[in-house]
Amino acid sequence: KMRLNFVIISLAFDHMQILGLLAGAKINWPWQIAIILKWFVFFQLDVDVAGPECLARGLVTFENKWWFKVLLPFIGMATVAVVKTIIAVIACCCHHHKKHKKKKIIIKKSGLGEDLAHNGQSTKTITFMVKSFINIVAFCYIMMTKAAMSIFSCYFPPGDDTGASFMVAQPSEPCWQEDGLQFALMPPAIIVILAYSCGYPVA
Length: 203
Prior knowledge:
- This protein has helices at 6-22, 31-40, 62-70, 72-101, 111-139, 141-150, 181-202; strands at 154-155, 166-167.
- By secondary structure, the chain is an all-alpha fold.
- It has a two-stranded antiparallel sheet with strand order 1-2.
- The longest helix has 30 residues, at 72-101.
- Mean pLDDT is 75; it is low at 103-114.
């Protein structure tokens, strides 16, 4: 029986994400390679590629998109948990229904056997949830790191002698102002960089 090796798929996905980063480099690629690299950008799972702000400008703001990017692993984990719970409830209901339809004697498990079966199922569920979280974190690593680092990326407009700088990701927002958006997102960005961008490779 053939089994799909998820490690190979994960390595291939990571490789495509890294190649997608080269599309944004200031290199004069041959047009054949440039087209291929642009397609690899979609493997970075970056919501900016889809341009959602074109559909709902009032809802999809830069701040909302940023929070969605850095919280995506937890959103994905919550989704997996809900789906897993629904499947477990449906399976339990179906099993209960079949149990009543059978007209043969069912030998009940001993208390110790039931405890072992319950603990085994709980261990499998926890293992599945942890694996899912690690996989989601791995797939979203580049997108989350880029989102966190973008908060500290600023530029000085050419020809402006005031010395004011603005965010590269959101040119209308000034940098290093206490009442600005960049200043508000700096603490969570630092947490993401330390706990996720640096912590995940070390772990």
